Amino acid sequence: MLSAEDNEILTRVGPGTPMGELLRRYWMPAALSEELPSAGGDPVRVRLLGEDLVAFRDLNGRIGLIQENCPHRGASLWFGRNEGSSAAPSAAADGACGLRCPYHGWQFDVDGRCIDMPSEPASSSFKERVQARAYPVHESGGVVWAYLGPRETMTPFRDFGTDSLAPEHVMAGKTFSPCNWVQAMEGNLDTSHISWLHQYDAISELPDDGTDKPGYNSVETSWRIWRHDRAPRLEVHDDWYGYRYAGIRTSPNGHTHVRITGFCVPNVTTVAAIPYRGRLSMFVPVDDENCLRYNLVAQKIGDMHGYGSGGNLFDVRNFPYAPQTRQGIRPRQWTAENDYLIDREAQRTQNFTGISDFNSQDLMATESMGPIYDRSQEHLGTSDRAVIRMRRILIGAAKALAENGTPPPALAEDGHDFRTFRSAEKILEPGEDWRILGTDDDPLVREELLARRSTASGQA
Questions:
Q1: Residues of the chain with CATH 2.102.10.10
Q2: Least trusted range by pLDDT, from 97-101, 201-205, 392-396, 448-452
Q3: Separation of alpha carbons 455 and 439, rounded Å
Q4: Does domain 28-146 have CATH number 2.102.10.10?
Q5: Is the pTM of the predicted complex or chain greater than 0.85?
């Protein structure tokens, strides 16, 4: 359990809070690129870390993220006109374009500068002294990322592989969740729940396909293992980005199976997949009581050995749950207001929860705790080791920054390669070390990296 004080530190993200100041030192997803599809298009409301902002793509194609309230009299710039200035209405080469407030016509560019103030005398220099709060942005992997921290501490963008991702491999989506970002993220860092929350009765009918042996098993065999051994043993291994941990289970045939999930400070996870994964989940605070779950492809994993893009959890025959939406803003059909459409008869005869949507099972669990759960009421066990470690890292980093100005961990300026952040899943060979799986020292990863370099050189 946590003390009430530490729970406050962990969950509060507004300006001036310890965790809020920590999170502002990292680049955060602010919107999907598809929400700003064209130059001069409609602005988008963004609430991020408790701040109300507006994102827009100006007539020259540049993206701005500025405060929602006009610095003049506070009208919402979301209602503004995305246009050129009165001096350059068609977006001249000087870049004179931006959002024009509908109240008095004041106009702001992507950097927050007031570039037009037509309600003031033409001779006035007042506009040169007015600035809207604006944040740097970086577009990568189908996501518009923003840096909300002090400009003097801004570090380079943390590239998990999205900067070099080919357009045909870009896939990004987001889901709104009315609960605190930490309890949402804790679900991704909890390997034991897959043996309970997501279980369905037909798993017992999956055939033994011969992959319950050392090596890369099928997805069907994974489901059989999760149902067979429902009390995994956890081992946590710290690394420069945070940690990876293994959920260790014994397969029906007596072999050692590992699900390896990674946590990169402060809010990035990569969940276990066969053979390894280059897909990220990020838990972004809207404010203290709401968050957005971003999911994106960070790097293309090839089709080697028949495992496609990372052993998709849902690629299993007769999978009973609703199709999963991965791209764009994901609609919420299953919500707390309709009790996640729970079917009690299905709960008794078909699946463990009675909820027919896989992702909504997770959402039910984390949202039903309330907006911010009081962690001083918890009773944690050995299967919670990864969650405990994440909390200690975040609280320690937030306190160190607040009290001593200690730079946060896992920043891009430290010289590390974030493209090496991967998860994995496998039945271990005798004596095999799970810590190698999915890393650049993994023979399978080395093989793919070599093949990728050979392909790139052949195309050069």
A1: 28-146
A2: 448-452
A3: 21
A4: yes
A5: yes
